[in-house]
């Protein structure tokens, strides 16, 4: 279970190990498979460790990072179409203008495509200077978030930091972590999911520390929002949390990878 997305109180889950996308309707007893679910493979009805899913509101299609098949696909009218091939995709997001952003965890970069125009290389909007730890580099970028100003936030996983690349910037700034791997409040350990709220507060799943952190840009350290009580399966614990998402009411949902569950929290601002 890699990523999750909340739309109209419905939960979309990239159920990576089962090679499928599952939608849980609001208050449903069980989910329904909307993509994949036909075993691991590269056929048009199969997925291979898909890592992210988003919904394109314009045409009500589903867009999926089909990671081990190295392709981004679109599910429209129950048919899978390949949008982008030969890309080591991990995270996906879309901005208010309909641009699609994809992180490439092997090349260490994020690229942007104009909606409907996928027959090109896309434009690099973060990284793109090889894998590394300089401000113009990324090392295993995973999930991404784009704000109203088209600034790109990237979980720079192996650098244990979250980077913010402003529109047209040639290098990023560290907005969370960046002080080596560790469990102090100014550190992260393999950060994964990242979301920024309307107040500009950065929420990040601190995977190796089994907690969700909140950072205000410019602050020296973050604060623990949920978790941080050791590795486990209690309601106040995580076991390698992955992606996270907010619903319209400000509730926080976290995909907890090794307890195979999604937890919902009311966040105190």
Q: Any overview of this molecule?
A:
- The protein is an all-beta fold and 269 residues long.
- It has a single domain (3-266), classed as Neuraminidase (6 Propeller), CATH 2.120.10.
- 0% of the residues lie in helices and 47% in strands.
- The chain contains no helices and 23 strands.
- A 4-stranded antiparallel sheet has the order 1-2-3-4, with no helix packed on it. The protein has a 4-stranded antiparallel sheet with strand order 5-6-7-8, with no helix packed on it. A 4-stranded antiparallel sheet has the order 9-10-11-12, with no helix packed on it.
- A hairpin with a 7-residue loop joins strand 3 (20-24) and strand 4 (32-36).
Question: How is this fold's topology laid out?
Answer:
Layout: E1 4-7, E2 10-15, E3 20-24, E4 32-36, E5 52-56, E6 61-66, E7 71-76, E8 79-85, E9 89-94, E10 100-104, E11 109-113, E12 123-127, E13 141-146, E14 152-156, E15 161-165, E16 173-177, E17 191-196, E18 201-206, E19 211-216, E20 223-227, E21 241-246, E22 251-256, E23 261-266
Antiparallel strand pairs: 1-2, 2-3, 3-4, 5-6, 6-7, 7-8, 9-10, 10-11, 11-12, 13-14, 14-15, 15-16, 17-18, 18-19, 19-20, 21-22, 22-23
NHL repeats: 131-168, 182-212
Pfam family, one: NHL
InterPro entries: 6-blade_b-propeller_TolB-like, NHL_repeat
């Amino acid at each position: 279970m890699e990523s999750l997305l909340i739309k109209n109180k419905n939960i979309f889950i990239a159920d990576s190990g089962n090679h499928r996308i599952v939608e849980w309707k609001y208050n449903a007893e069980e989910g329904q498979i909307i993509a994949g679910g036909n075993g691991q493979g590269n056929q048009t009805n199969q997925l291979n460790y898909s890592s992210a899913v988003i919904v394109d509101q314009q045409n009500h299609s589903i867009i999926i990072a089909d990671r081990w098949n190295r392709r981004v696909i679109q599910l429209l009218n129950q048919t899978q179409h390949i949008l982008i091939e030969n890309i080591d995709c991990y995270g996906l997001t879309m901005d208010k203008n309909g641009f699609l952003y994809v992180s490439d965890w092997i090349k260490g970069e994020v690229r942007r495509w104009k909606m409907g125009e996928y027959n090109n290389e896309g434009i690099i909007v973060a990284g793109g200077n090889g894998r590394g730890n300089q401000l113009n580099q990324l090392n295993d970028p995973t999930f991404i978030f784009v704000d109203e100003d088209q600034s790109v936030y990237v979980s720079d996983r192996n650098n244990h930091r979250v980077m913010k690349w402003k529109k047209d910037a040639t290098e990023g700034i560290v907005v969370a972590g960046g002080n080596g791997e560790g469990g102090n409040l100014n550190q992260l350990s393999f950060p994964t999911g990242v979301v920024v709220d309307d107040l500009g507060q950065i929420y990040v799943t601190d995977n190796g520390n089994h907690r969700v952190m909140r950072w205000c840009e410019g602050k020296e350290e973050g604060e623990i929002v949920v978790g941080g009580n050791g590795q486990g399966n209690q309601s106040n614990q995580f076991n390698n949390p992955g992606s996270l998402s907010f619903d319209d009411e400000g509730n926080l949902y976290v995909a907890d990878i090794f307890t195979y569950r999604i937890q919902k929290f009311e966040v105190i601002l």
